[in-house]
Each structure stands twice: as structure tokens, then as C-alpha cells.
Amino acid sequence: MRIDDIKLAVVGLGYVGLPLAVEFGKKRSVIGFDINARRIAELRGGHDHTMEVEDEELAQAKHLSFTDEREKLREANVYIVTVPTPIDAHKQPDLTPLIKASETIGSVLKRGDIVIYESTVYPGATEEDCVPVLERVSGLKFNHDFYAGYSPERINPGDKEHRVSTIKKVTSGSTPEVAELIDQLYQQIITAGTHKASCIRVAEAAKVIENTQRDVNIALINELALIFNKMGIDTEDVLKAAGTKWNFLPFRPGLVGGHCIGVDPYYLTHKAQSIGYHPEIILAGRRLNDSMGSYVVSQLVKTMTKRRIHVQGARVLVMGLTFKENCPDLRNTRVVDIVQELGEYSVDVDVYDPWVEPEEAVAEYGITPIETPSKGHYDGIVLAVAHREFVHMGADAIRALGKPQHVLYDLKYVLPSHDSDLRL
Fold first, then answer.
1. Which residue in 2, 126, 214, 399 is deepest, having the highest Cβ count within 10 Å?
2. Which residue is catalytic, options 130, 199, 260, 327?
3. Annotated catalytic, 260?
4. Does pTM top 0.90 for this prediction?
5. Residues 360-369: pLDDT tens digits?
6. How far is it, in rounded angstroms, from Cα 32 to Cα 117?
């Protein structure tokens, strides 16, 4: 197959797939496929509710069409899979979306076709878990009748500066020739350049350690914050001072959620355990980061008690529900840990987040966000996400939401230290 012969389909049009399909759709014909009929109707109408792609940019993808009909995929000969790879309730990898997408593609796969996976997986998943599904459903033989590649997604939801085209892309293929073709394909849209990995397993491993490294570093800073809090030292002041050294890494404490950092390490540890190695540092970091919601609530409750604010039946406002600022993405947000932990103390919790679609919050977590918080209403306020709206409010407007005697916990260093009662 030559680069000009490629007929492209992107399978999965979420935070990863849609920006990718749009970039390719500016250059060449692309079929955008998703099983969610509502999502397809929305995109055909020229709007992306995730706000990753602006309406104007969506309109620029003149060669991009949308469908939820599997048969339309037969028109393609190169498929890029961009479906979620979450973890289950037991923190084990859930490959269900990936397997189902592979079954869908397998049903339309033809001789000479190429399937490229972008979803985050553990090393070996493409060839050990996905390819056998493609073979079984299609009846074709891998690396004889069809081929595969892996090019890990690199996207930062809500970030309008680091876009899919401006982030260097790792590529790989199941044969040297296919690897080169896949690399050429991505070079058509990636202005930052590409890095062709030596094999698919290397590309998979590279992706999964990117976020594992960040997770472990944040766990270290979270642990330091716990220590400094016990010592009565302001953590941000310490980090600012240490940051004057040229090679000090600028991590900050906080809740670690989202679809990557809070998930990817479990894919690596799952694979490590399956080959007989028990990871120590990675799992220790995960345990610490997963415990931060409980720690925040314990600090809030302790401070409320010291101020003689009755905890049981108290009203607490949690400002922000998304996993990061200035985006509507609720996937694996750890703010829910705070909400649930407060519920254990019989606290009445209001969640306020102007970025969230209420229906999604209800469906995902059983949480119904309020439209507007009432002034003078709360015994405690937790500033959990640094949305620009909250930054613009400032300390006085946020404080005005509390009763005359209340506790304000600023998790994200939105306010100067003297304007909050508690910080990590």
C-alpha cells in the first residue's frame, strides 16, 4: 500500500479520536465512526460538546464524514482505534471497548488492511489481545493478510496550546514496511514530528510509563505535603523555594484522576504481576494518590471541629467536579472521593461546576450539580478544581458563600495562602 492509497477511518470519536479525525479531515478523506448515535448526530450538526474541537475548526475538516453504521467502514483500508481503556472496580484493566472495536473492524477487514491502535494499553496488548480478535472475526492471518500498528495518543483535554498536531508522535508497525507507512501517514498532520519506535511493544511501553512517571512524582509531592502539613510548613512556599534550582521538577500536590495518570499505572502493574513481578514504587504511589480525597476530608472535618462547627448535618460546597480545570471531562475524577467521604460524616454536600453537564454527572456518579451556590449558606467550602471562573471570583466572593463561621479549603492554590484556611 502506498500513502496515496490510504482510505482512513477513525474508530471512536471522543477526546482522542475527534481531534485526530479533524486534523486528518483537513488533508484527506476520513470516515469518523462511533457507536453513539447521539454523538454522530451532534458532530454532523457541527458541534462538539466536549469542547476539544471548536465549531469553526470542525467545519474546516472538509473531507471528514461521520457515521455509526459499521458497513461504512468497509470503504476504509486503514483503521485508527481511539476508544477508552478504563479500569474496573478492582483496578484491573478493562479492555472491553478495545475488544469490541476490534470485533467491529474484524468484521470488515480485508486483505492488505492496516489497524492502528492509539488507546493506552500494557506492553503486548496489541499483538496478544487485539490481533487475535481481528484474526478470529476476519478469518485473515496477521502479517500475511493484514497488519497492525500502535501510535499512543498524546492529548491534554482542555489544553488549547498543546494540540494533537503540535505534540510529537510515537509510531510503530508490525513490519518495517508498515511501520514506515504509518510514520509517513502521521507526518501528514503532526507538525511537531514523529518518533518511529523499534516495535509495537516499545511504543506501548513508552506510552504507559509517561503517565506512570508523572503519577509517582505527584505521589512524592503529595507525601511531602502530608509531612509539611504536620510540621506547619506551607507546601507551596517550600516548592517555590526548591524550584529555584534549575533541575527541580515543578510538580504540585493534589487529587490525581483523569483518563491517564490515575489509570495507566494499573495497566503496567497488571502486566508486571502477570509475568511474576510485584511493582513496589508504582503501587505505593497509586495507593498514596488514591488516598488523598480521604485525607482532604479528614483535614476539613478536623478544622471544622476545632472551630466548633457541628459536622453531622453541616453543609459543604465542593467547587469543581471535573478531573482538571477548564474542561468538562469527568472521567475518573477523584473529586468524587471527597464527596463520598463527606457523605460518610453525614454532611450535606452541594457540588458546583459550571463546566459539567448535569446529566453526565448523574449518569456517571449519581451526583446532581447545583446551578448556583447560595450566599452565606455553607459551613465548609472545598475549592477542588481551578476553573477560570473560580479564579476570577477571588477570595471575597468565594468566602461570601460561607456562613460567618466556615472553613475554606483551597486544594489548587487558587488563592493566596492568607485567604484560605487550609491548603495541601
1. 126
2. 260
3. yes
4. yes
5. 999 999 999 9
6. 15
